[in-house]
Amino acid sequence: MSDPSATNGLRPRATLAALAPFVLVLAACSSSSSSSTPPASQAAASQAPASEAPASQAPASEAPASQAPSGATVTLKGLAFSEAEITVPVGKVTFLNEDAVAHILAEGENGVEVASPRVQKVSISPGTQGEMDFTVAGDYHITCTIHHAMNMVIHVQ
User: Fold this and answer.
1) Nearest CA-CA partner of 90 in 46, 24, 52, 138
2) Number of structural domains, the chain?
3) 26 burial class (0-12, 13-18, 19+ CB within 10 angstroms)?
4) b/e burial code for range 37-73 (CB count within 10 A of at least 16 → b)
5) Exposed/middle/buried for 35, CB within 10 Å: 0-12, 13-18, 19+?
6) pTM higher than 0.85 for the full model?
7) Burial of 155 by CB count in 10 Å (0-12 exposed, 13-18 middle, 19+ buried)?
8) Rounded distance, CA 79 to CA 144, Å?
9) pLDDT in tens, 53-111
10) Range of the domain at 111
11) Is 127 domain-assigned?
12) 3-state SS class at 141
C-alpha cells in the first residue's frame, strides 16, 4: 500500500498547476481595463467652465413639473402613473408601459369608465406604448380599468 502523505503532498501542487492558467487570464483581463488617462471627450468636458452646460442638457427650470410639453409621455410603472396630474395642450399623450402586466386606460375614476367618454380607451401590453388623443380642452380623469388604484388627471388646454 502506498504512503497517503505522499499523495496528499502532490495533490495541492497539481491543483495549483491546473489553476495557474485561469489566474493568469483573470489577472490579464482585470489589468487592461484600468486607465489613468481619461478619453479626450472627458478631458475637454472637465476643462470647460462650470457655468457652461453641455448643449444636450437643458436647464431643469424651463417648465414646471406639472406642465408637460406637447406630445407628453406618462410612464406606467409599479402599477402607478409617473405623474398624478399634468397639464398639456390639445393633442396626443403617450403612455409607456414599463410594468410586466397589461393596462387598459380609460376616462374615469377608480377603474370605472365614464358613461360618455371624450377619449377612446387604450389597451397597452407590457413593454409597449399607447396614445390617447385629447381633442377638446378640459379636465380628464384617467384610470386603469384593470388596476383600480391607478388614477391621474390630465388638464388639456
Assistant:
1) 138
2) 1
3) exposed
4) eeeeeeeeeeeeeeeeeeeeeeeeeeeeeeebeeebe
5) exposed
6) no
7) middle
8) 9
9) 333 333 332 333 344 445 799 999 999 999 999 999 999 999 999 999 999 999 999 99
10) 73-156
11) yes
12) strand
Annotate 43-66 with DSSP letters as a single string: HHHHHS-TTPPPTT---TTSS-TT
Residue 117, domain member (yes or no): yes
Beta strands in the chain (DSSP E): 73-76, 85-88, 91-97, 103-109, 112-113, 122-124, 129-134, 138-144, 151-156
- Domain holding 140: CATH number? 2.60.40.420
**Grid coordinates 387604450 are at which residue?**
122
Reduced to 3 states, what is the DSSP secondary structure of residue 26? helix
Q: Mapping DSSP to helix (H, G, I), strand (E, B) and coil, where does residue 11 land?
A: helix
With respect to residue 93, please indicate whether it lies within any of the assigned structural domains. Answer: yes
Q: Are 43 and 63 in contact (CB under 8 A)?
A: no
For residue 85, is it within any domain?
yes
Q: Quick one: cell of 138?
A: 378640459
Sign, Cα dihedral of 131, 132, 133, 138: negative
Give the span between the Cα atoms of 83 and 90, in whole angstroms: 18
Distance of CA 31 to the CA centre of its chain: 32
